[in-house]
UniProtKB/TrEMBL annotation:
The chain holds residues 1 to 385 of 512 of the full protein. This is 2-isopropylmalate synthase. Its cofactor is Mn(2+). Residues 4-266 form the Pyruvate carboxyltransferase domain. Pathway: Amino-acid biosynthesis; L-leucine biosynthesis; L-leucine from 3-methyl-2-oxobutanoate: step 1/4. It is an enzyme of class 2 (transferase). GO terms for cellular component: cytoplasm.
């Protein structure tokens, strides 16, 4: 089956979320869990950005054995040297170097001509290649770059030794159709494209990061860059857990293999949330508190009869324990009876109906009826004559 590499950047792009700051011990704990999860590449940080980041990348490169460890570097020698010093202990030293390629970034941010940018990119990749076997080159703001210019710079960096070409949608502007078409165009028009990996890196400003990543994959991307819980700059990056589960559940239309151990997803998500202090929105797909919770009577009745009436992902698949049916004002008699029986109450139909009426009255007043409330209601009926 076609292999899609998962490049996790929780510890680099994810840490760029406002308010997140992980220390070395926390980063190592997350990196070990990412290794257990089975990601192909861990982007552990940006070593030139601070001594703390350098140390974290270095410690992770020493600790992690089953995932490739990389660090980010601008297309300058000193940044590439910093990554080398941090990851040279790793079995497969990898560097991720980048420069912006869109007209707006080249003119206003870099103040360089397109030719000067190509010259700098080529020099950086050649320099990196003297040390590293694996060199990823990113065209920052790639999606808003001129397509013909992308072909030119990519051809040159491939000649200089790049092994992976990443074309990010840095500002989350692309639609799935456009982003997919760009990958198809680059695959078809870049010289030497067959000898390198193409990588997708999507931001979620318009809520399309996961869809865009999958569209890129369908059009020739071999690697997807993403983060746990979709953490990242502004609205975040493509969420790893959503991509991995979507590709698994819809294997009928996406016949690919990611190497992700799905049952480690919940644990990884919880760990990242706890250590970053970033709360997961309750209705977040796959890992949100409500991702497998059914509240309405019709849905509850359905899942009690056959889980798959309303459940396309089994909670156990991602390492989630049993999720009890939520008892609230939309719940029905079937869920109520099921919970009463699970709690050990055996009531006649009459008593159960009476308890259900009491429960409905309470549910109208409270957002969620607790286990203690249920015990009170059911016990009252059990002891009544
Ligand atoms: O979004 C982006 O362009 C990046 C690059 C550094 C790859 O994070
Ligand atoms: Zn990014």
């Amino acid at each position: 089956m076609r292999k899609i590499d998962i490049f996790d950047t929780t510890l680099r792009d994810g840490e760029q979320s406002p308010g997140i700051n992980l220390n070395t011990a926390e980063k190592i704990e997350i990196a070990k869990q990412l290794e257990r999860l089975g990601v192909t590449v861990i982007e552990a940080g940006f070593p030139a950005s601070s001594p703390g980041d350098f140390d974290a990348v270095h410690q992770i490169a020493k600790t992690v054995k089953n995932s490739i460890v990389t660090g980010l570097a601008r297309a300058v020698k000193s940044d590439i040297d910093a990554v080398w010093e941090a990851v040279k202990v790793a079995e497969q030293p990898h560097v991720h170097t980048f420069i912006a390629t869109s007209p707006i970034h080249m003119e206003y941010k870099l103040k360089k001509t397109p030719d000067q940018v190509i010259e700098q990119a080529v020099a950086a990749v050649k320099y990196a290649k003297e040390k590293f076997s694996l060199v990823e080159f990113s065209c920052e703001d790639g999606f808003r770059s001129d397509k013909e210019y992308l072909v030119r710079i990519i051809n040159e960096v491939i000649k200089a030794g790049a092994t992976t070409i990443n074309v990010p949608d840095t500002v989350g502007y692309a639609s799935p159709q456009e982003y997919g078409a760009l990958f198809r165009f680059l695959r078809e028009n870049c010289t030497g494209a067959d000898n390198v990996k193409f990588s997708a890196h999507c931001h979620n400003d318009l809520g399309m990061a996961v869809a865009n990543s999958i569209a890129a994959m369908e059009n020739g991307a071999d690697q997807i860059e993403c983060t746990i819980n979709g953490l990242g700059e502004r609205a975040g990056n493509a969420a790893l857990e959503e991509i991995a589960v979507a590709l698994h559940i819809r294997n009928d239309i996406y016949p690919v293999e990611t190497g992700i151990t799905l049952k480690e997803i919940k644990r990884t998500s919880q760990l990242v949330s706890r250590l970053t202090g970033s709360v997961i929105q309750p209705n977040k797909a796959v890992v949100g508190k409500n991702a497998f919770a059914h509240e309405s009577g019709i849905h509850q009745d359905g899942v009690l009869k056959h889980k798959e009436t309303y459940e396309i992902i089994s909670p156990a698949l991602v390492g989630e324990g049993d999720v009890p049916l939520v008892l609230g004002k939309h719940s029905g008699r079937a869920a109520f009876r099921d919970r009463a029986e699970t709690m050990g109450f055996e009531l006649s139909d009459d008593k159960l109906n009476k308890a259900f009426e009491d429960f409905k009255k309470l549910a109208d007043r409270k957002k969620e009826v607790t286990e203690e409330d249920l015990v009170t209601i059911l016990t009252e009926q059990q002891i009544s004559i």
